[in-house]
Records
---
Amino acid sequence: MNDKILIHVEGLQKEFAGGEVKALQNIDADIHSGEVVVVIGPSGSGKSTFLRCLNLLEVPTAGSIYFNDVDITDKSVDINLHRRKMGMVFQHFNLFPHMTILGNMTLAPIKLLGKSKTEAEAKAMELLKRVGLADRANAYPSQLSGGQKQRIAIVRALCMEPEVMLFDEPTSALDPEMVGEVLEVMKELAHEGMTMVVVTHEMGFAREVGDRVIFMADGMIVEEGTPEEIFSTPKQQRTKEFLAKVL
Amino acid sequence: MVEALESLWADLAADFYTCFIEKNRWKYLTSGLSNTLLITFFALLIGVVIGIVIAIVRSTYVKNYKEMKPGLGKKCLAVANWFCGVYLTVIRGTPVVVQLMIIYYCIFVSSNNGILIGAVSFGINSGAYVAEIFRSGIMSIDNGQFEAGRSLGFNYVQTLRYIVLPQAFKNVLPTLANEFIVLLKETSVAGYVAVRDLTKGGDIIRGATYQTFMPLLAVAAIYLALVMFFTRLVNILERRLRAGER
Ligand SMILES: Nc1ncnc2c1ncn2[C@@H]1O[C@H](COP(=O)(O)OP(=O)(O)OP(=O)(O)O)[C@@H](O)[C@H]1O
Ligand SMILES: [Mg+2]
């Protein structure tokens, strides 16, 4: 971790249904380069919405998000260029079912970065080897287990060489015995210095890998700090109640 | 009794001879059939092109309009979407025969290329229905596919092209093939504007021989055989596609 602020969030608000649902209320946050930030909180607290606002999959109602000092909520910014640098991993993997694993991984590098097929495939194979799935390169997503799919989803995003990786409950849709293999890949990524924002219910992962934990409730950041601070000496009543339930 | 049957048989044989053999009248049916198939094929081709364009415009408007930057592109999309709406309303709100006659008498005034007129008329008509097929095909693709594409940095149209449309196309293929069968029967009104399709072929024989039963029965039998044949093909296609799924 260093002191460079990669993502700076200022006064972020998000409303749904014409203002009836206030999913996010006045969020301020900084994500430093190389930092692993874990977002926890009860269901409906706005964790996913927060994460999806970071790459503008949800368009904020108000507030600014600076990525590398550029305000990406500015209408004149081409968000597609910035998204290339922000990998995202979804709860339900969202692999492209009509393409092989290699096809999934090389589509964006070829079409968006102008890489040659050979170049993109070499990079993809290297990543596949690292997650132990090189032998599945020509399989289709439907032929993989959930854990394998999620590992592929992670390396698909890595093929774009992103500066930050956003994870939205990457292990929630997995059978328990497959959670470990995905967390292992994420852990490795963290050790390599990848900047990560992870929404998860895996408190073990938060404690072990997280540099900082953000606890959200009712669309607000209630408390944040090191894992030690949040898990061992939480200050807010809401945090204590939540942790009592999940730990 | 036997005599009556024999004379009935002889009558039928004579009718058959007048209708189909004499003066090579069967050729009206075969050339009509080939025209019908050509018109249907090219009409569906035109319909698919129109349909894909409209489906893209309309689904882009629904899914992407709000997040587009203000500017020329956004205005163009709004205008295009409006035109597509008008097109769909008009085409689906008027009888195909009337559309055919308008195109024949008002637009292709100097042309008597029946296949061209038929293909264009039925193509424009079928475009409206194919558009709906594609639109629901696009809408049926899980939103996660759009999000995965967008999160990698693809813009909306690229996401459609590389990720959503290939899947949607596969999903709608059986419905599209059914549209071909519907169109095949629908083109039977082409004779209204002197296009010599299969139905018109039978009608010409009827006019020349004053026989009604045999020519029309033959026409009906050919349509039925075609429809049954293509329906079978669609079923096989459907089964193949389903077998290839997850
Ligand atoms: N597209 C949407 N339309 C309307 N309301 C929405 C939409 N997305 C989220 N919400 C609402 O916004 C609030 C925050 O939702 P969000 O999905 O961010 O919560 P979460 O913390 O990720 O919950 P979970 O742990 O269940 O995933 C909820 O009240 C939810 O119902
Ligand atoms: Mg969520």
---
Amino acid sequence: MLNLSRAAADGAHFVEEVEKRSGQRLTHCYQCGKCTAGCPLAFSMDLMPHQVIRLVQLGLREEALDNKAVWLCSTCATCSTRCPKNVDLAALMDALRIMARREGRTRKGASTALFNRIFLDSVRRHGRAHELGIGLQHNLRSGKPFKDSDLARGLLVRGRLKFRPSRIKGAAEVARIFAEVKRMEDGQ
Amino acid sequence: MNYTYYAGCSLHATGREFDLSARAVCGRLGIGLAEIPDWNCCGASPAHSTSHLLAVALSARNLALAEAQGAGDIVVPCAACYQRLAVARKELGEDPGLREQVARITGRDYAGRAGVRSLLEVLGGLDTEHLKAQVTRPLGGLKAACYYGCLLVRPPAVTGFDDPEDPRSMDDLVRLAGAEPVPWGYKTECCGAAHGVANEPVTLKLVRDILEVARRAGADCLVCACPLCQNNLDARQEHVNRVFGTDFGLPVLYFTQLLGWAFGLSDRDLGLDKLFVKFRPGV
Ligand code: SF4
Ligand code: SF4
């Protein structure tokens, strides 16, 4: 009994947090499945987009956050454009990724989570994203040192990759933005 | 006509040709572009997937810099950057509390005076006679599949231009250049570029599908408006052929390159020499 009521309390809390972060009313979704029908990434997902939103409606935190689907969603907004109830599912997926990361539930999207971290690190240090550096770092840290080496070579000979990052004058200002956001969010 | 110009990181690297051809075509059309000094990365997907506040703040710094510059609305060639700046502008305009919080974070306020428009919207909105007058080398009925990608016209509440399911602004420009836009169903299908580094097999399948549908529609080339799409569809084409045993050889170029070609601009000025699959109309 005790566990059940605790689970229900967390479920309600979870729904509330997702609604607040995504700006979406979960009860609006009536499970028609149109989002899933048009989702270009559905073929690769372990849960269909309409199932993800159902799990959130049910307050099932672990199931809704700990899956591959939230990390495979490319935020293409096909679903948001077509939903007959105007649910912005792309915004919801964003909120779920943010929460999954904050709760350390990135196991099923480890490669994407790593990419995001390396990308943002590049922006924090230089003010801009350094594509070559990001790709190389990801290769090294995911144990695939030669992935896309043909591609990188092809881009380099065409002058479509830069060896060095370009550091903007306001790089320190950008780093401060990262620090301020972190301070505000951790203080929440 | 003058605009503030936001290039974005890709246009300084993998999307060099988009930057070159955008500037060349705007120059020919008498559109002045004043680059935002010291702009920063918009944060792209990694930022909005990590922190909503961070995503808005990174874009807001650019919006504030552009507004302070006072050179008019911001025009953005890259579909991905365009969408990030447009989302930030909308959210800051609708939520005074967020605007205040973000101003504290960035140390700069954005009052919403400088608007955000995609380069496709700006060029598509020009007087057709003015555009036609520049065409000195029409493309002779070349069949082009216009590929808008996912971010340029979606979600409509943010982008507010063209049709989110069947956009036509690029088709119209391509027609003006003397090419023939083919009807096809993958105009706004996602190409999966965001997964290129982290989940390549997923990306390759999406790229294969888009190339296949374009070929079946009879296209001689794909025309696009996003450096992530272009790089994904062009530079990964050989890899797709290796993995799927296909033999695609479809040039994938920016709409500005196609227009510029019709305007008689040189391959070099348009960065056509930088494509993986060569574009040789009429050969
Ligand atoms: S399309 Fe909208 S209403 Fe239908 S299942 Fe998806 S989110 Fe729910
Ligand atoms: S935004 Fe995500 S869930 Fe929605 S259609 Fe695109 S990939 Fe699928």
---
Amino acid sequence: MSIKLGDASYEERVQEGVQNEFMRQAVASAQGRFRSGKQKQADKLGNWEDWRTLGEEIRTHTLENIDYYLQLLSDNVSKRGGNVFFAQTAEEANDYIQHVIKEKNAQKVVKSKSMVTEEIGMNEALEEVGADVVESDLGEWILQLDEDPPSHIVAPAVHKNKEQVKETFTEKKGYNQSSQPEELASFAREQLRQEFLSADVGITGCNFAVAESGAVTLVTNEGNARMATTIPDTQISVMGMERVVPTYEELDILVSLLTRAAVGQDLTSYVTSITGTRLEGETDGPEDYHLVIVDNGRSKILGTEFQSALHCIRCAACINVCPVYRHVGGHAYGSVYPGPIGAVLTPLLDGYEDHKELPYASSLCGACTEACPVKIPLHEQLIRHREIIVEQEKMTPRSERLAMKGFAKWGSSPAAYKMSTAMARSAMKPWTKDETVANGPGPLKGWTVNRDFPAPAKQTFRSWFKERQKGGES
Amino acid sequence: MKVSLFITCLCDMFSSDVGKDTVEILERVGCEVDFPETQTCCGQPAYNSGYLTDAKESMKQMMKAFRFSDYVVGPSGSCVGMLKEYPKLFENDLVWRDEAKRLADKSYEVTQFLVDVLGVVDVGSTFKGKITYHPSCHMTRILGVKDAPMTLLKHVEGADLTELPAKEDCCGFGGTFAVKNSMISGEMVKEKAAHVSETGADYLVGGDMGCLLNIGGRMRREGKHVKVAHITEILNQH
Ligand code: SF4
């Protein structure tokens, strides 16, 4: 897997999403739960907007000094006996990890949830060198069994309901109990416990890496990251280069924002910080530790108008409020990063060619921007993408370009504008019945497949105003 | 107080009543209303589609049209919100920069103007009927006008207000989005229309013509008999 998922066209993906009633119901109810949870937490905190400002300031400061903080992080991880590898590309990251796996002659790898490893397609790369990779986050495990990609960055299997999970377990793992979530979870726990105990290498993602100490911090509710980081002797953490935070103090604030915005909790059940290897005199920690810091297109975003997209703490609050996401689901985005942040980030990391529709998959309602705990102006960045698609990439159809040229003429010429508004009614006449257009021509079709369009008014406002002035009416 | 009406192209063409109501309400609370004839469109259809250069042609015309106005007041959160974006878009344009800022600073959505500038919360209207209000996304999130419309509606004598479930969710209009992403937009407006029906209201009220055309068009298509009214229509009943 890489950033791009599958080969279906955007239209096909959207259609498939819209027609999948099961998925839509599951997504809508999850969105409802996440949203109300977040709202409760924000209210409880009382000064949510101040927290957001703080979050934004921390992320801005860190990104503006990212070279310094990454160096500090790297030095501190090295001091703690870890190896640090900066990977410019997905290939470089995978090569390095493959190399570690081969060197250890590792048969089994357990993973905790990580978006960046999805982004670089790490699992496939490890399977290539013969390693058995097991996802240990419950949602990810279900998807792995089902060979289905994640559709949400926090709740990867949000598009599935418990009946579907039961089916998967039955088919793939011989499960024979009910579809009760407790029974399903306890079955998964038993199965995964075996995997943890027999794993040679543990691989984790990274929510935040603390520069001052070299601690990679993982935020989970299942405790699986803790298992993956305590049992195997060799551990690898993979992080996007923007995951760095200066000190524990900033970590505190960002974790507080993350757990509240993501799942509506004051704190998740587990927050795990791991620093390097077991040093002399210490009782725990791995023998061998590697931190892989992935660029994969991120440094190109630095210094551009999209820099703040790197502020993202992957909380999915923008996804949970997005009405487009609700109706099409995560897979329709055709990217490992769905929803508003996915629509912003995917073209930046993977180019416009395969993802040029994503910036338009938004009504620009701004719910995402309002929800984002680190104040990324998501909907504005979608407009910037559109500008680039139009003005630099020149990817829009000729008919649309001509129409917009026409718009510019119309909007800049009061005479033309006035004439067109006066004539609109008669121009629409052939399609009008009972003051309604039910089956419009040209682009209007897109409108009238779903709803009626009104006939232009009998009298435009400006002619009314003029008559009124003439009549001296007050 | 002298006020220039910014009619917005949608109201100019599709709902001249909104313009009339706006003028009459403003006059009733003591404003002198003029209508700069050379105004056109705020530029949003092109801007939101990524055609910034084309959009700016229209935006410049708007700046010219309202150059001599003290206040610019319009019956749309979305279009006024667009005017408020001008300073950012003309930041590096030495010719238009100052004008963009002046226009943004003196522009108001009509309910915002009544409540926040004039301090009027009761425009003396009476209206019989069950109303539900859809707070449009651009009014609340882009322009930041969250309370003014409800404040005014609460003071309408006889109006029975009922809350719209999931009111903050977008109706799926989004300008060219409704056409370009017709399928998604269609699902969004179906959901909104269903929420409107749930309220049992006779009137769906809003402050943005685009959303009202969208939701109203859907309800009509479904054969539902909810009337759609711009907020000025309710505020001008007396
Ligand atoms: S963009 Fe903001 S809201 Fe969306 S996932 Fe990232 S931090 Fe969360």
---
Amino acid sequence: MSQKMTRRHLLLGGAATAAVALVKSSFGKTVQIGIPEAALDPTKQVGPLPGVLGTRSPFEHPQRKPSLTSSQTPLQDLYGMITPSDLHFERHHAGVPAIDPHSYELMIHGMVDKPTVFSLADLKRFPSVSRICFVECSGNFRKPDKEDITPQDICGLTSQSEWTGVMLSTLFKEVGVDPKATWFLAEGSDAAVMSRSIPVSKGWEDAMIVYAQNGEAIRPQQGYPARLLLPGWEGNTSIKWLRRIELSDGPFMTREETSKYTEPVKDGKIRQFSFTMDARSIITYPAYPSQLQKGWVEIRGLAWSGRGKVRQVEVSTDAGKTWNAARLQEPVLDKAHTYFRYLWQWNGDTTAIMSRAIDETGYIQPSLEQLITARGPGTGYHLNPVTAWLIKRDGQVVYSPEKWK
Amino acid sequence: MPFWACVAGTVMIACERRSKAMPEHFGYGRPATEKEIAVKAIAIRPDGKGLPAGSGTVQDGAIVYAAKCASCHGGTGVEGPFNVLVAPDTVGAKPFDQSSKRVKAIGNYWPYATTIFDYVRRAMPFNAPGSLSDNEVYSVTAWLLHANKLIGTDAVINAKTLPGIVMPARKYYVTDSRKGGDGPYE
């Protein structure tokens, strides 16, 4: 053969291209997908040769659900504790900034001995640490107003990654934090110049400056080239695109810790600095829009707590009358999504299934009614109620709407 | 201690300690200069620390607001389409915990007036963040405070007067005390 062999020739002999078809995604949205040719018998045609980047199967379409302000993780399409980086939820207040890693700088100043500017290369030279933990937005809740909503709609603002970076305590020692400093401001370099005040104690405890997510550089949507990571705390405090840390002897009272991310509680009070995410769980299968068949069903879902490890997950298949322990998939990590499973036989009767997480402090995930009774109907952030799925006689699984009192 | 000393007893422990120990300082990074700190440290504290020189009036603020804010926040700060900036409360409004509908705005929900300056200077106008001069920020802050019935028409807002304004909602703020454990739910 005198003609130079191209990849295309090798694969297709220079003939056809992939066919295109329209399919319905899990949201009922019609999307266009490419169908590999000769899919009828893959043993009769050589497939694509190795490429520079892997791809999803053209038959799989997990998609985040974007709004003007956020984009939710498709929890119902995932099988494990790690969220693929491109499916990690997004929440930011003025878009994703484009930051050149070569000119990136992090300045640490204020109540420190040595105000210092670190380049990205500097941050990467420090001893590094990896940690798997969730990041959840404290606004991760949707009012239970109708049946046709998915786990993604209800609580898709939580995702989990393996994060790698430097402990903030290492940097605190490097710059010599004044023992009298009690708070620090963390500031991003997005167009919102997002800023939050954080107690210095969290900085010494387990805060990190991370530059890698699931083994590669952080995605721009997650704070490229470096972000703060505060395990177990409301996502907004893990400032992305971190450019500055200012040590201080008091909080700064930024807009994001006064006007927003505060919640009305009992007796007309407004609760501030509600950092920790309480324990929560959700059944991700079976859930809307799945269709159930009589017989054995493996109920699956996620549980997590910002206060430590998940101690137990209990599942009820009789609308909350009785509860049974689910199996937890190892590893069960501190402040991390934990995958749970519970084997159940559905006999075809109408029922409701639900899960509740119990964390190592003994906290039991509450019902929506318990939360509203405790705080009042004006509450908004930090809502982590038990979520029930209604199973109808025909096997249709829908969200079970609840009254907001 | 020579390397071969890491062989037995207490000597080994001492040696291990030394090899595992993290140095207090790695020496990475460069010193931040006073000048770059002054440029970058834009956060304002509730006691007014960080507020720049300059000042603004309600009248000047009305001009800035009409030109650069009203298109998104409405002519009087309540019409939208984006966030309501002027508290639309009527007399006897329910406490926030009793109503999921009551609109939260500067006059009824913000605990510190300094936050207005800090936020507007860093993030507004949304379509041109960081484009206002310090005097424009002081002025539009004055306008917002006046529209929320917190200062008079003749007030001058500057680094001295702004932190002194007592916000009505401040007394309702409490710090989170949730601790986990077996309740009560809060």
